[in-house]
Amino acid sequence: MSVFTRSRGSALLGGIALVGASALVLAGCASGGSGNEGDGDGSSQEARDLTLKIGTILPQTGSLAYLGPPEEAGVGLAVDDVNEAAKGVAIGDIVWGDSGDTDNKAYATTIQKLISEKVTAAIGAASSGVTKLFLDDAVAAGILTFSPANTSLDFTNWDDNNLYWRTAPADTLQGEVLGNLVGEDGHKNVAVIYQNDSYGTGLNKTFQDTFKSTGGEIVAEQSYNTGDTNFDAQISAVLASNPDAIALITFDEIYTIGPALLAAGYPAKDLYLVDGNLKNFGKDGKWPAGVSMEGAKGTTPAGPAPDESFYKRLNDWAVADGRPEIADYTYANEAYDAIVLISLAALAANSSDPADIAGKLQEVSGGGDDPGEKCTSYADCADLILDGKKADYDGYSGPITFDEHGDPTEATIGIFQYGADNNYTRIDL
Predict the structure, then answer these.
(1) What span, in angstroms and rounded, lies between the C-alpha atoms of 272 and 249?
(2) In degrees, to the nearest 5, what angle opens at C-alpha 284 toward C-alphas 280 and 285?
(3) Is 172-302+413-426 CATH 3.40.50.2300?
(4) pTM of the full structure
(5) Which of 92, 94, 168, 187 has the maximal Cβ count within 10 Å?
(6) Is the previous residue joined to 125 through a cis bond, with omega within 30 degrees of 0?
């Protein structure tokens, strides 16, 4: 499938979408916190001793628990890379924490722990709905909150004092890719089952708007609430509408909804999944034996191309840390890039203060009117900054290029398909 470029407001034509937009320069402090004064004339500066404290509020339990291992591995590996580079920034022990979900509310304990620990930045949550429940507390405490997976449109204009950032693109992009994919596959009458929260409703709306613009019709839509365990009514309703495709915008509820649809005789090849439920079912041990997802497709934010050597490094980090091998790598790229960007922004700001770091995040991502030199690792970007230059970090998740709201303006949505082993492979490259 071809690669298509998309600017805000233009039509999306294909599977991989690059979102481009102009961005305003954020005013950032040149020094502060625990940093040393810079030269102020753009000349080379001495390496600075900046120590950051990173906390995580990622799903170890709850309906998105499968995202925890790759995201935590991304954080851990990036911290190791920053520390091993030894170029001005050091990160101490990571304060690991569970976000849970909106049902089990593990986030409530974790955010208070991170605040009491005085972390520089909290990485998380994965769920937009969870982040909404603790973000105001983090902002009030002056903590930088950086999510690798939040996609809700609501965060773009959140009153966050510039302290909320994310490497995951907003749902508008994934919804457009999914809607066009279903239309391009020749489907005309589609049903949707979606989670009734900010993630599900936002993604569902964009998907439906895009799919209908291809000439298709939504013949049924059914929602459910977080914590629901019985979906018989929703399944019966969508099957009764006789759809030629079904989009499932869910989290772990896929383990109930998917097998039930297949048991009712609905073909797997006409099912479409999203980032919240796209999993390697053949590896996680939770999918019912003998239930095939072969032919089903799904979308999720992804790097421009799979990087197997990077995935191996993530898995090696997890095993060395005493963790299980990683079953899939969803949002690992975005988590890794979050740590690198925070570290580069601290170096550019000459400060370990969260507000000062936030003031440089757009710059080190290449956003603003005067982007710096391209670089693809913390070490290489840090060398540029230490030489008095601007760095433009392009990471494993893509170019990123933050706008003034802390949203990435360049991102890639990958398209995946399940094979006979119930694991997915990328098909849009």
Answers:
(1) 9
(2) 130
(3) yes
(4) 0.85
(5) 168
(6) yes
pLDDT at 390 over 50: yes
Round to whole Å and give the CA distance between 86 and 49.
10
Topology adopted by domain 31-170+311-407: Rossmann fold (3.40.50)
**Residues 6+ positions from 347 with CB-CB distance below 8 Å:** 48, 50, 87, 88, 89, 382, 385, 386
Helix, strand, coil percent values for the chain (each to nearest 5): 35, 20, 45
Mean pLDDT value across residues 105-110: 98
At CA 138, angle to CA 136 and CA 142, rounded to 5?
Answer: 115
Distance CA 49, CA 35 (A): 7
Report the distance separating Cα 20 and Cα 375, nearest Å: 19
Count the residues in the chain. 429
Closest CA to 129 of 66, 197, 175: 197
More confident residue, 22 or 60: 60
Are 297 and 416 a contacting pair, CB within 8 Å?
yes
Q: What is the Cα–Cα distance from 141 to 120, expressed in whole angstroms?
A: 10
Q: Provide mean pLDDT across the span 238-243.
A: 98
State the Cα–Cα distance between residues 61 and 66, nearest whole angstrom. 8
In this structure, are residues 370 and 401 in contact, taking their beta carbons and an 8 Å threshold?
no
pLDDT in tens, 368-385: 888 999 999 999 999 999
Task: Please tell me the distance from the alpha carbon of residue 180 to that of residue 159, in angstroms, as a whole number.
Answer: 33
User: What is the residue type of 423?
Assistant: N
pLDDT at 246 over 90: yes
- d(Cα 250, Cα 248) in Å, to the nearest integer? 6
pLDDT of residue 20: 33
pLDDT in tens, 169-191: 998 899 999 999 999 999 999 99
Q: Residue 326: which residues within 8 A CB-CB, separation 6 or more? A: 69, 70, 73, 311, 314, 315, 318, 332
Give the start-to-end residue ranges of the domains of the chain: 31-170+311-407, 172-302+413-426
* Mean pLDDT, range 399-424, rounded to an integer: 95
Q: Do domains 31-170+311-407 and 172-302+413-426 have the same CATH topology?
A: yes
Percent of the chain at pLDDT > 90 equals 83
The amino acid at 276: G
Separation between Cα atoms, residue 414 and residue 299, nearest integer Å: 6
* Contact (CB, 8 A) for 163 and 122: no
- Determine the number of helices (DSSP H) and then strands (DSSP E) in the chain: 12, 19
The CA-atom distances, in angstroms, between 367 and each of 22, 97, 288, 371, 401 are 8, 31, 46, 6, 5
CA–CA dist 15, 12 (Å, integer)? 9
